[in-house]
User: Which sequence fits this backbone?
């Protein structure tokens, strides 16, 4: 099931990730991100965390195969951050956790739900949550406005 690709290994919902959204939806967004990261727009690509090792970007930027978290998870041979006994004390995770919490996404709660087998329900809820109220297309947690219709994201 394709949607499962959207379960971020750190508990982030890939469907709301700006790299994922840019790659799937918008050349304009890709160019914007590329400019900010001084890379080629072609390099802004992702099919979701679960697929990243097959076809993900592996350049110098922090997404795709080169994501710090993925490197860490791979070195420990685990799929999700919750499988690591140190994750609640992990600085990398904590920083990312706080960034997301400020935007209303609780990675620890997300990981808890993945752990107890509620991944399908969780993904469904996230999908609904990160959908534009106005045009009903998918939106990004990192943007203030819908990249489709320009509606403000609350
Ligand atoms: Zn919209």
Assistant:
């Amino acid at each position: 099931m394709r949607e499962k690709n959207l379960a971020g290994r750190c508990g982030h919902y890939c469907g709301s990730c700006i790299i994922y959204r840019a790659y799937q939806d918008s050349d304009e967004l890709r160019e914007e991100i590329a400019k900010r990261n001084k890379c080629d727009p072609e390099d802004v690509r992702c099919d979701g965390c679960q697929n990243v090792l097959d076809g993900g970007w592996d350049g110098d930027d922090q997404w795709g195969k080169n994501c710090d978290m993925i490197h860490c998870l791979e070195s420990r041979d685990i799929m999700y951050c919750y499988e690591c006994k140190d994750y609640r004390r992990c600085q990398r995770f904590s920083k990312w956790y706080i960034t997301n919490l400020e935007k209303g996404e609780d990675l620890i709660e997300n990981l808890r739900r993945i752990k107890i087998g509620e991944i399908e329900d969780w993904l469904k809820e996230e999908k609904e949550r990160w959908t534009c109220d106005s045009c009903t297309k998918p939106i990004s947690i990192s943007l203030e406005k819908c990249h489709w219709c320009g509606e403000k994201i609350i």
Residues 27-37 form the longest helix (11 residues). The two ends are 29 Å apart (CA to CA). The helical segments are 18-25, 27-37, 52-55, 68-76, 91-101, 107-115, 119-129. DSSP finds seven helices and no strands in the chain.
